[in-house]
Amino acid sequence: MEIQPTFMQSPGQPEHEEDDGLAVETGKPELQPPARYQVIMLNDDYTPMDFVVEVLETFFMLNREKATQIMLRVHTEGRAVCGVYSRDVAETKAAQVNEYARECQHPLMCQIERDA
């Protein structure tokens, strides 16, 4: 039976740590800003343009001129970005618009996409 030698530890130093006199700097984690999401309004052939402008003013806090520009882009291009937000805010705004449109019996829809 072999007897293993025991070493004296410094007080407060755990057994598994060895101090070889090396200075080690802990690196800071690389933080990235949270992803941003676009709220995109989709065109349909039934929702009145005035209703779309109202939705943009109400839910996206746009002035009449900007809301009209976005409404025309939705109408001519089939879709347009209403705003860019954090994921939670974008999901909430899209859901609010979709619910409000259903309550008013319009097929208007918004969806979210990750911003590039």
Automatic annotation (TrEMBL):
Belongs to the ClpS family. InterPro entries: ClpS (IPR022935), ClpS_core (IPR003769), Ribosomal_bL12_C/ClpS-like (IPR014719). GO terms for molecular function: peptidase activity. Involved in the modulation of the specificity of the ClpAP-mediated ATP-dependent protein degradation. This is ATP-dependent Clp protease adapter protein ClpS. Residues 1-12 have a biased composition (Polar residues). NCBIfam families: PRK00033.1-2 (NF000669), PRK00033.1-5 (NF000672). Residues 1-30 are annotated as: Disordered. GO terms for biological process: protein catabolic process; proteolysis. Keywords: Hydrolase, Protease. Binds to the N-terminal domain of the chaperone ClpA. It comes from the Bacteria. Residues 33-111 form the Adaptor protein ClpS core domain.
